[in-house]
């Protein structure tokens, strides 16, 4: 099936992109890598009057250290997350996560901003950003705001982004000496979306564990984290997952199977976080 799109415009600057979005009166969306949007247009899951192409905007590119954060431009592609030396040094969780995303062709076009805006509950990067305590920088013609990752994802393919806003960059706290980063997931085949996945960060403040594939959005396992961070056992933390996670059954896995996998991943990730 062919996509249903009435128009296409290549933004020449961020202001131009805001003007294009504004003039289309809610009937336009930005396109970055196109890896999720084009599929959904082809399947007629969405229909747009105008695609605003932001791929060529230099303001959305670049990876650099500033003010205690690694700033990642929204157009950072998954393949860059996997290979950039600054990412490997300062946020190894993202370097570990990127190769788990889809296949090489998708990773060479798909972008960080696109993945976060798309908010697929089984995607790796949204959960990583919650585990890392990252902040998402978004801008519109009215100005800029920073949204903590834990309040950015609101539900199935739904975020705190307003229609007129574009993700500019993400600020991720730098890994300190002694911190550990681990991501693990269980998939049917390599490159598939995870049935269940877990991103974990251990720092002087304790552990942060963010699950993906278990709900309509990534979930911080708050009860299990409380137990682990107050010296409790992994068995008790696994038991607390009953209260933290409320997965649903779907054609890929039953809710009970997802609960089982979540417990398996908790044990594996905690071994890696404490031994690595
Ligand atoms: C077969 C297949 C398998 C996949 N498997 C996985 C997987 O295992 N894990 C995973 O995480 N992902 C997976 N993906 C999705 C892939 O990672 C996409 O690249 C990503 O989700 C979207 O990035 P994009 O740049 O292509 O965004 P696009 O497709 O261009 O856009 C996606 C959405 O984000 C919006 N958007 C894009 N950029 C911005 C921005 N800067 N500001 C505001 N809104 C923006 C668009 O308007 C659109 O609504 C898969 C995709 C395919 C086709």
From TrEMBL:
Residues of the FAD-binding PCMH-type domain: 1-177
Pfam families: CO_deh_flav_C (PF03450), FAD_binding_5 (PF00941)
Keywords: FAD, Flavoprotein, Oxidoreductase
InterPro entries: CO_DH_flav_C (IPR005107), CO_DH_flav_C_dom_sf (IPR036683), Diverse_Substr_Oxidored (IPR051312), FAD-bd_PCMH (IPR016166), FAD-bd_PCMH-like_sf (IPR036318), FAD-bd_PCMH_sub1 (IPR016167), FAD-bd_PCMH_sub2 (IPR016169), Mopterin_DH_FAD-bd (IPR002346)
Oxidoreductase in keyword set: yes
Gene3D superfamilies (UniProt xref): 3.30.465.10, CO dehydrogenase flavoprotein, C-terminal domain, Uridine Diphospho-n-acetylenolpyruvylglucosamine Reductase, domain 2
GO molecular function: FAD binding; oxidoreductase activity
Name of the featured protein: Carbon-monoxide dehydrogenase medium subunit
Organism per entry: Roseinatronobacter thiooxidans
């Amino acid at each position: 099936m062919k996509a249903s799109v009435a128009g296409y415009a290549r933004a020449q600057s961020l202001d131009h992109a805001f003007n294009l979005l504004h003039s289309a009166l809610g009937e336009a969306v930005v396109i970055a890598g196109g890896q999720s949007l084009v599929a959904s247009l082809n399947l007629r899951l969405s229909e747009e009057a105008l695609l605003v192409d932001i791929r060529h905007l230099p303001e959305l590119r670049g990876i650099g250290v500033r003010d205690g954060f690694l700033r990642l431009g929204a157009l950072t592609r998954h393949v860059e997350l996997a290979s950039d030396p600054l990412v490997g040094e300062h946020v190894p969780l993202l370097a570990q996560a990127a190769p788990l995303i889809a296949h090489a062709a998708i990773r060479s076009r798909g972008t960080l901003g696109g993945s976060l805006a798309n908010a697929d509950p089984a995607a790796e990067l949204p959960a990583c950003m919650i585990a890392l305590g990252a902040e998402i920088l978004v801008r519109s013609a009215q100005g800029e705001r920073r949204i903590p990752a834990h309040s950015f994802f609101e539900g199935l393919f739904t975020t705190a982004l307003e229609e007129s806003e574009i993700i500019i960059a993400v600020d991720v706290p730098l890994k300190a000496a002694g911190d550990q980063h681990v991501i693990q997931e269980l998939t049917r085949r390599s490159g598939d979306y995870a049935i269940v996945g877990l991103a974990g960060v251990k720092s002087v403040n304790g552990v942060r564990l963010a699950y993906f594939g278990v709900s309509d959005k990534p979930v911080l396992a708050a009860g299990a984290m409380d137990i682990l961070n107050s010296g409790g056992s992994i068995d008790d933390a696994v038991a607390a997952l009953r209260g933290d996670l409320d997965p649903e059954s779907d054609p890929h896995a039953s809710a009970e199977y997802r609960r089982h996998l979540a417990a398996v991943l908790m044990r594996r990730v905690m071994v890696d976080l404490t031994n690595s």
